Amino acid sequence: MKNKKKIFLTAIILIILVGILGVWKLNLKTTTLEQLKNSGHSQMMGYIIKTDNDKIIVIDGGTSDDTENLLQKINEYTGKVDYWFITHPHKDHAGAIIDIIENTDIKIEHIYVSLNDMEWYKEYEPQRAEEAINLKNALENERVKDVVTEVKLNQNIEIGKARCEILGIKNPEITTNAINNSSMIIKMYFERKTVLFLGDTGAESSEKLIKNESKKLESDIVQMAHHGQNGATEE
Questions:
Q1: Hey, which of 80, 170, 201, 208 would disulfide with 107, CB 3.0 to 4.6 Å?
Q2: Is the pLDDT of residue 196 over 70?
Q3: Would you state the torsion angle of the CA atoms of residues 93, 95, 101, 105, taken in this order, to the nearest 10 degrees?
């Protein structure tokens, strides 16, 4: 009789443990980061992140040719974007968001940018100023204009357990490689990893970054500036 009671109690304990472990497994969520591949012929930059509390973050997103792939990724997660960071307005970074704003009903909760005046783009990079104007026009669309924020240097943005810190913003005084050198620079802090996004930061703005933010630059993962070519210095 005693043995039967022991067996019964052991079985009950095992059932409870399995149930607890099952619940724990179901609730165990991790952060995922995916570097998107280009869908067209142009190089591009696009990242999509799902945080452990199911917030979706997009960094840039690529050209308009990359829209379909990006939409597929967004819909595989939650079907909306909670935080969208645009490092700078070149079409290989901002083309997809312009397309999505103007031609889809995907909900975007927050958009973060760092833009110079349009006249600045016309003066210092006239051959690509239209790309900045296209982004500005898209951000003034009724659908998103109220969720657009111009970031400030060293601004912190809390996203659940994650945190984003803005280490670099527009640099209107740097007129060499002008638009790239005004890339937003973002450091993201997750529970176990840090990620540094440099956009297309050039040599000149990277020197400014080292001078002003050197203590914050060390990161587990670094996105190599300007697609790994002619971007920030090795230092």
A1: 80
A2: yes
A3: -100
